[in-house]
Amino acid sequence: MVFESDEGSGVDRHAVGLGDAAYREMKERLIRGVYGPGYKMTVRAVAEDLGISSTPARDAINRLIGDGALVYAGPKTVIVPILSEADLKEITLVRLALEGLAAERAAQEGSGQIIGTLEELQEKINSALLDKDYTAALWHNKEFHFSVYRLAGLPHLVAMIEGLWLRIGPSLYNLYPEFAEEKYGVHNHEMAMEALAERDGAALRAAFESDIRDGFRSLRRAARANLRS
Question: pTM of this prediction?
Answer without folding.
Answer: 0.87
